[in-house]
Amino acid sequence: MLTKLLELFDQTPPATADTVGAPFARRDVAVVALLIEAAQIDGDPAPAELEAMARIVRERFGLDAAVAARLIATAQSQLAASLEDWIFADAVREGYTAEERAEILGLLWEVVYADGRLVRFEEVLLDRMGSELNVDAAEREAARVQAFARSGRSAGGGAE
Q1: Whole-prediction pTM
Q2: How do residues 145-154 score in pLDDT, each as one tens digit?
Q3: N or C: where does the chain have the smaller number of CB atoms within 10 Å of the terminal CB?
Q4: Cβ contacts of residue 18 below 8 Å, gap of 6+?
Q5: Nearest to 4 by CA among 78, 75, 74
Q6: What span, in angstroms and rounded, lies between the C-alpha atoms of 52 and 44?
Q7: Closest listed residue to residue 84, CA positions, set 9, 159, 22
Q8: For residue 62, what are the domain limits?
Q9: What is the CATH classification number for the domain harbouring 111?
């Protein structure tokens, strides 16, 4: 596996290639990989988190359920083959505007809030993602608050 990763670093993709496998753009696979990581960071993704992730993928990218499932499977494969999530954060940072990155951070918060609880691992991941995506502190908090409001929860949002 390490050999495969080293080979990937040695390869220089063509300047015009923004895909990791038709028909999905690298930046879109990266978003979905981060959504998957948010759902599973606490070790046991709740059905509500997985459902929220699948819904977000369908809505965000305008996909039907079958194509969304293929995108999720592609992102899952890429995530499983990686050692760190920085490669996905980097692709999102390079592929989206500041406003879009703040929106994506909100989607990550929406996934972790979907099961009705926020664990420390989730909070730490999303704080780090906000920084890695270059979302400023005020926008990070706004993304969290908006996602919390969309979740329909009635209290604060502190970590367990």
Answers
A1: 0.81
A2: 999 998 876 4
A3: N
A4: 25, 26, 27, 95
A5: 78
A6: 15
A7: 9
A8: 25-151
A9: 1.10.3680.10
